[in-house]
């Protein structure tokens, strides 16, 4: 049906890979894509490829669209490619040639590549500014086709590297249909395949949501507690679906969604509804991890503790069955650490004084949940890969997790700032930073945004193939960031307040199929 191997040259192969990835069906061609990218990387040695020689002078290798596409696809896959490849396109003033702006496909490709820059790669910042400026001007241009305007509009709103794969595919499939109609007036095999695959996966995801909803309904925890538990089953599932959407990760998705809901209840208990004594008793109970030692707990905290342990026990059994006993032990240890940091947070929040920003931040970035979610994702990866994850995180927090935690905390606190202020919460990153550095709220947020931009570049570099764990694990960490950015940054706190944009996203992903 589709043959990557039949591509006539590297550009044709990379162009097809790009389409397959955008349409959300790349998981069907995982090995073929990996082999082609490996071949392209090896054939076009990045240390010699763009030397001033005859090979470089070949038009194929001097094409902005091809060079940008190759750069992006290889960096996305974890291969290092030098930014020197873009120097060819700069003039004597070290600015991008103005005539490049007339190459719409080149601008689109350069724009998407610019999101893969590392710290210190100024040329990538310049590429982003240059391509963004010219793509924006195309939106009102009468000299380019409507299909190119649609592509430019979509790229500016949803850059590939920042997007959740499933949501991107849903939108791109309709764009691809329009592009193919403009070219050949009929539907292609690739379009039909992508549409059928999307709808089939959506049906699977609907079944998974129903299973998690049935579990939550049976749990009936809302009727057992005196405080208003957030009922966010579908929202939690949407976040876990954004980490892994492929059919082989069905079990992990369901358990991650359940885990997210239970952790939300625990988080609410610590942050909002229990006093310091109750919080301390709940913390002690989790450190003992014994269902028989619940006498000190209030009835409300006892319900939370027992229901949480019931789910945690299920997860441990699945980890033992699909991975190893080491994975189960690691999961328990990380859960206890997560509760410990929640306890440290609540002590500072209820201390009566605002802590120093560094003190508060050093605690809050520890409970991002990355370790817990990572180990659950190894359920079906086997003992060897599970042990690799454990060994990788045992000595110290890997940089990619550390920077992801920092990003999630800063972005989350910015997004939930107004909601927390309405609740009366005074201890948060923004107010602590304002007090310590003598800045206004808007200045604090602006500084955090600058940090987030730099952290994205650091995470790009940490996404290279330099880690002793499968690249799938690295991809999952980055996907977790993308999911939280989608539901928190752009929607405010889109998990706590799930109407508006969050509802639209969920409807698009899980309710509305792709029709003719």
UniProtKB/TrEMBL annotation:
GO molecular function list: magnesium ion binding; terpene synthase activity
Domain of life, per lineage: Eukaryota
All copies of domain Terpene synthase metal-binding, residue ranges: 217-456
BP-aspect Gene Ontology terms: diterpenoid biosynthetic process
UniProt keyword terms in alphabetical order: Lyase, Magnesium, Metal-binding
Domain Terpene synthase N-terminal: 7-156
Alphabetized PANTHER family for the sequence: ALPHA-HUMULENE_(-)-(E)-BETA-CARYOPHYLLENE SYNTHASE, OS04G0344100 PROTEIN-RELATED
Protein name: Sesquiterpene synthase
Lineage, uppermost ranks: Eukaryota, Viridiplantae, Streptophyta, Embryophyta, Tracheophyta
